[in-house]
């Protein structure tokens, strides 16, 4: 199956068609314009100014400190001739160069000639929180930045559609990942830093001749990325879609084996759940979610256990709704958790210091606009929670725990349904 015929993330269409504007801590100011009259600000949430004009998307957020956070995504060209321009670079052309970066639930890969699919359409966007204001920061252009992870305030990684970036406390620089032998096309996926100068990366290779793909894992040794051998998945089309580390001997990788999609008759997809104990990988069985389609978006590791989040469909029909999928590791096996019935795609999962949050959207096949979606963990099940803002086209793409308590989330909202939404940054607590 051709990877490029699968739609990227569940919220890709609404999130990538946004016009960034100002959100504000004053709820009334967030709905000043008549075009935003149907936007409702959620209780206990605070909205923040997004310092970007023009079309843009924010896809992830990470907080190394209470007064230190990063939000990332891309500015977009939707036919105006250019994406929203960044501020003038102050660190030289080797640090930043605009426009130079080169199907369902699957990431893009670079073209066979090494160019980036997003070239001329999406330029990298990075924002920084200093405890008072979100400000735009110049970064090398690596396309759409989809994942962030921080080991410390001077060790932050960003994974994008066309490369990797690293923050050392002074500069963002582009860092190449290791070549994948024999791969016709390869792309870096999510990255995780475990706080010990150690980091892990998952990615995907694709062969346009056969339509086959496979996941790969790499580890940062302090100077370069190196490939880490993984168990044979056994199929012909698989992807590692999420990674999280709680130390060098506690790393989880999750993804999906899509081989069943290509069989005749087709068979349900299978989750891939791998654990690294510091010496070897162990694959744990799919707990049997009952879903035909299974898409992993995040893995979260905590002292109390681990979680896998995403969404699923009960049959492969294009009209079938997408439902929240959240698994919990009990120390011995992966278990399904109870979630509210109905539509809901979980894009991220994070703790606010007291409980767990899962955020995403309510994408429907018959209405791609959807709405923002949030759940909280009650101790034995997930329950519906307030969202920072409601309006046609709303989605929450990323969430991050704030040291000392609280939660950041980023996303987008299109209240008029005219593909003129704006970027969203919000905090709870």
UniProtKB/TrEMBL annotation:
Protein keywords: Signal
Chain intervals for the UniProt region annotation (Disordered): 76-108
Annotated signal peptide: 1-29
Name of the protein this chain belongs to: Galactose oxidase-like protein
């Amino acid at each position: 199956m051709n990877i490029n015929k699968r739609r990227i993330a569940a919220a890709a269409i609404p999130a990538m068609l946004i016009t960034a504007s100002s959100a504000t801590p004053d709820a009334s100011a967030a709905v000043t314009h008549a075009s935003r009259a149907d936007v409702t600000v959620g209780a206990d949430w605070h909205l923040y100014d997004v310092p970007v004009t023009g079309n843009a998307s924010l896809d992830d957020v990470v907080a190394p400190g209470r007064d230190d956070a990063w939000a990332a995504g891309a500015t977009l060209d939707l036919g105006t001739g250019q994406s929203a321009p960044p501020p003038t670079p102050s660190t030289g052309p080797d640090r930043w160069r605009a426009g130079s970066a080169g199907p369902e639930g699957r990431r893009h890969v670079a073209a066979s000639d090494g160019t980036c699919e997003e070239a001329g359409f999406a330029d990298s966007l990075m924002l920084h929180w200093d405890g008072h204001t979100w400000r735009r920061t110049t970064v090398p252009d690596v396309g759409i930045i989809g994942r962030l992870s921080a080991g410390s305030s001077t060790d932050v990684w960003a994974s994008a559609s066309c490369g990797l970036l690293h923050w050392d406390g002074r500069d963002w620089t582009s860092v190449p990942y290791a070549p994948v032998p024999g791969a016709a096309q390869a792309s870096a996926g999510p990255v995780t830093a475990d706080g010990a100068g150690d980091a892990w990366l998952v990615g995907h290779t694709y062969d346009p001749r056969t339509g086959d793909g496979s996941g790969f894992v790499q580890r940062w040794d302090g100077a370069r990325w190196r490939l880490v051998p993984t168990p044979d998945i056994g199929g012909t089309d698989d992807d590692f879609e999420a990674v999280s580390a709680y130390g060098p001997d506690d790393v989880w990788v999750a993804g999906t084996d899509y081989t069943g999609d290509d069989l005749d008759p087709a068979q349900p997809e299978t989750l891939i759940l791998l654990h690294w104990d510091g010496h070897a990988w162990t694959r744990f069985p799919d707990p049997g979610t009952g879903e035909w389609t299974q898409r992993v978006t995040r893995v979260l590791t905590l002292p109390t256990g681990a979680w896998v989040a995403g969404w699923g469909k009960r049959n492969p029909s294009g009209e079938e709704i997408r439902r929240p999928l959240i698994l919990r590791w009990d120390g011995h096996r992966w278990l399904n958790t109870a979630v509210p019935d109905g539509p809901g795609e979980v894009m991220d999962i994070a703790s606010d210091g007291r409980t767990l949050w899962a955020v995403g959207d309510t994408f429907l096949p018959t209405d791609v606009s959807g709405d923002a979606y949030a759940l909280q963990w009650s101790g034995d099940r997930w329950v519906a929670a307030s969202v920072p803002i409601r309006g046609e086209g709303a989605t929450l793409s990323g969430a991050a725990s704030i040291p000392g308590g609280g939660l950041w989330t980023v996303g987008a909202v299109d209240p008029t349904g005219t593909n003129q939404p704006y970027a969203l940054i919000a905090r709870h607590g």
